Amino acid sequence: MTPARRTLLAPAVATLLVLLLALASTPAAADPQWASVDDATIHPGVQMYTDGAQCTANFIFYSTDSQTGEVADMYIGYAAHCAGLGEATDTNGCTTTSLPYGTEVEISGASQPGTLAYSSWQAMQDVNETDANACAGNDFALVLIDPADHDKVNPSIPFWGGPQGINTDGVSFGERIYSYGNSSLRPTDSILSRKEGYGVQTGTGGWLHTVYTTSPGIPGDSGSAYLDSEGRALGVVSTLALAPLALSNNVSDLNKALDYAITNGGMDIQMAEGTEAFDPGLGTMLG
Description:
By secondary structure, this protein is an alpha+beta fold. The protein contains 4 helices and 14 strands. It has helices at about 5-25, 120-125, 130-135, 255-265, and strands spanning about 45-50, 55, 60-65, 70-80, 105, 115-120, 140-145, 175-180, 195-205, 210-215, 225, 235-240, 250-255, 270. The longest helix has 23 residues, at about 5-25. The relative contact order is 0.18.
């Protein structure tokens, strides 16, 4: 090897060694330790109360410590309008005010209240969002779970299992969808809480999915999780539509909402997949 070639190669070798050492020193992210599905009291489908407003939790999210790779924070999702200060008809997240971050949120099954950590409505107002589709469809919020309750959490959707990944392509007409809404206006674990239905369309620039279920969402179901036909997380209940498709539900797209939370809301998080396998064969209401 000529001296000139050694001179050119040396920096490349040094750079490679630095990269290898950096990778070796980066801790591997630890898998979260979830409570068993039978013992967990905090999971998708539990009721959440914010300044008197009632909503249903959708999915579990978490962040990891960059130094140790261990789980740092756990969050439970619901709809941004659950912390909104407008009327029921105020659905524009770019103009409707919300309760401030740090507001206490009662989580059924938790020993300590959670705190509002992210609201898509607040995030959109902070960045002066001008996309009308996002303003109408981005309806997602996160509540920080108190560390004292981390050992009570399981991310599985009741009855159906999952989620298994995140839907990134919307729903087609007639595609089966699944949900679990647990409004206190129904008996606990009522058969009407276990929702099956069909997708109608994905619209509003991909921000909203219109769906029909055997029992439509009612007050208290807002924020609850929807899965697509493959058990992937589709979105969260945003509104009950009266027109043009009466008694359909509009479901805010989770993939877009989560990306917005990470990009514009500073949330370094990921969705937790269910410990229980998705099983649509459990459905009984649509055959």
